[in-house]
Amino acid sequence: MEGLRDCTTSSSTASTPTFHTVRQARRIALNRVFAAIYSCAILALLYHHALKLTHSNSLAAFFISLSLFISDIFLAFMWVTQQSFRMTPVYRSEFPEQLKQVVNESDFPALDVFICTADPYKEPPISVVNTALSVMAYDYPAEKVSVYISDDGGSQITLFAFMEAAKFASHWLPFCRKNNIVDRSPDAYFASNQPRCSETQKIKEMYESMKVKVDNVLERGKVADDYITGEEELTAFTKWTNGFTRQDHPAVIQVLLDNSKDKDISGHLMPSLIYVSREKSRTSPHHFKAGALNALLRVSAVMTNAPMILTLDCDMYSNDPQTPIRVLCYLTDPKIRSTLGYIQFPQKFHGLNENDIYACEHKYMYIVNPLGMDGLSGPDYEGSGCFFCRRAFFGGPSSMISPEIPELNPHHVVAKHIQSQPILELAHKVAGCNFENSTRWGYKIGFKYGSLVEDFFTGYRLKGEGWKAIFCNPKRPAFLGDVPISLVEVLVQCKRWTVGLIEVVFSKYNPITFGTKTIGLLMGLAYAHYSFWPSWSIPITIYAFIPQLALLNGVSIFPKVSEPWFFLYVFLFLGAYGQHLLEFIFEGGTIQRWWNDQRMWMIRGLSCFLFGSLEYFLKCLGISTTSFNVTNKVVDDEQSKNYEQGVFDFGVPSPMLVSLTMSAIINLAALVRGLTEAFMGRKMEEMFVQMFIAGFVVVNSAPIYEAMVLRSDKGRMPIKTTVVSIFLALALYVLFPFTVRN
Ligand SMILES: O=c1ccn([C@@H]2O[C@H](COP(=O)(O)OP(=O)(O)O[C@H]3O[C@H](CO)[C@@H](O)[C@H](O)[C@H]3O)[C@@H](O)[C@H]2O)c(=O)[nH]1
Ligand SMILES: [Mn+2]
């Protein structure tokens, strides 16, 4: 069955009907015309800057003009790279129902699912269990599905939770099948369905009792003896000896369900469920999530070696049991499958508040931009909700790289049983922390090392090797995940992304130098747009302080309202914001969400982009180290109340809040000063642009003023942050006149 090993079904031949269609977006022509006009406007602006620079009559004026020029160069660069997404966006549809009529179930390729978790106290095991159950309950032949849990937390609590999950699955899977349930994550199902019959009531009670047990164990921090029922379970926990810590421990691999023999209560086979905690040692690097995924790639190769792999974050449960069949609509297509590396579903989230105050939906990053890349050679890899062909991890489509042992080869057929001694032994060996030493894992094979955004980097490198990808965005979201619900948490997550992206910029794979050459100009620019994301901080920070400090000192730095150059600024501003608004609404957004999205863009520019860049440079100097701080998925009651009501949570002191608050203060002061002068009768024609910018920032900063002055709850601005920011803002104000005068 060579076809099956290549991630395709054996019945698909050249004459197979296709089960998907694609159409180009109607706005393409308009996008292109607008891009041409806007480019001319940008050139005019740069010319205007050049004039100003050459005509500046003092050093201070020169430096102000220079800073605005630099800002606009960065804005222009980001604008140009963004056009790559606007040149050929496409929309796809799939027809899984038709596929099921044509392709035999027995011809479906096998599927290995990888779920990563890293810390039971930040990622509640019960929610990881929900994710696993939701995919185990896929409408897909159970004997072809294996679910691997990677536990980087090395926690017996997580293992215990999955032992319980395995038992509960034997009730849950037939329950879903029999009642044709669509929400196959128990939490999601019980949140939206009240039990109306005794069967549902019973299964709900069973779920609740499992949840209580798991939460109990979590609270106690260890598995009490009375919770361990069988001999096999007891043996599994003996691995947690006294010397066992999360940074230092042997590999633990436990087969909890085996799809060749374990049956549910109705007699159907169940998918395999395998717990894997790779070996860790303080002396060898473990490469965070990429390392975890590579360990799973190897362990799964040894045990099941399915040609199709789904990667999921622990909080991303399946929201549609038909998803793998939808994926087959592409994988069975002989026209595309030879170079198809992966199929990405957008990251979508449950529990966003109505107006998505922290813009965690990331509509551009997760939907608008991937649609644009899909018209080129495919979306980036988003880290979760992505189906890979296993073969893609072993070199380009026409240049296969063989792994060091034949059992890891994507074409290798596993002949032995997953619980047999030789298989388990080999699985432990390939999960060892020294296995990768002097191999090509992480560089040529598997998920790629070298960036904290291993997802972005891996997808990008696969493209460079010649793989293509598809963006699959069905109406009913295929997966739903959690979002962070406090501002600092959001900023910390984004700071990690910033560091990861800058790592890509300064690597030899820089998308401008390496990317445009290997994957084409537009794809290279698209990847550049992502990886240069942190550079937004340069123009945003300059625009947040320089015009306002100049206004406070009565210095005009933009064209007067009556000058023609003023209209250029109006056009550039309205053009960029207007197009952003239209695209946002067009992809199903609301005006309020758009407003919050642009506000978060400014906030990120002043905080995480800035501090992430700083962290990266400190790391280069060897002053600090960076690591993957897992996003907290545990919800505090007051926090979630604030979040639901759309109230910002500043809560924890962080330097990132200081720069933000400083900008809010300076802008307010500048606006007040400007307005006062206007009321006193001074003509403000030459100050209008500065006053407008200050006013715009002030309106955007409303939640900050409120949190500083009016609130007394836990989510208010920490007093320390307020005091330090006021002090620093004053210092900036006092120092600035010197630079202006000199
Ligand atoms: O050492 C680690 C660190 C993290 N993880 C797992 O990685 C996933 C993502 O971590 P999370 O803290 O949720 O990060 P996010 O910023 O929310 O994740 C986004 O960004 C990451 C890259 O920074 C990608 O890996 C994710 O897929 C993408 O959803 C989680 O399942 C973690 O358990 C590990 O397995 N090992
Ligand atoms: Mn996450």
TrEMBL record:
GO biological process, one term: cellulose biosynthetic process
Binding site for UDP-alpha-D-glucose: 122-123, 152
GO cellular-component term (any): Golgi membrane
Ligand binding (Mn(2+)): 289, 313
Pfam families registered for this protein in UniProt: Cellulose_synt
Topology in membrane: Multi-pass membrane protein
Protein origin, superkingdom: Eukaryota
Keyword terms of this UniProt record: Cell wall biogenesis/degradation, Glycosyltransferase, Golgi apparatus, Membrane, Transferase, Transmembrane, Transmembrane helix
GO molecular function annotations of the record: cellulose synthase (UDP-forming) activity
Family: Belongs to the glycosyltransferase 2 family. Plant cellulose synthase-like G subfamily.
Record-given protein name: Cellulose synthase-like protein G3
